[in-house]
Amino acid sequence: MGARAVIGTVVVVGVLVGGAYVADGFARGEAEDRVAEELRTGLDGLDESPEVTIGGFPFITQYLAGRISTVNATAQEVTVDGVSLQDVVVDLEGVTTESPITAEDARMTAHVPLAGLLEAVDLPLEVAIVDGALTATAEVFGLPLDAELVPRAEGRSIGIDIETFTLAGATIAAEDLPAGISDQLDAIAIPLDGLPEGIELTEVVVDRDGFAVTATGSDVVLERATAG
Question: Which domain of life, per UniProt (predicted)?
Answer without folding.
Answer: Bacteria
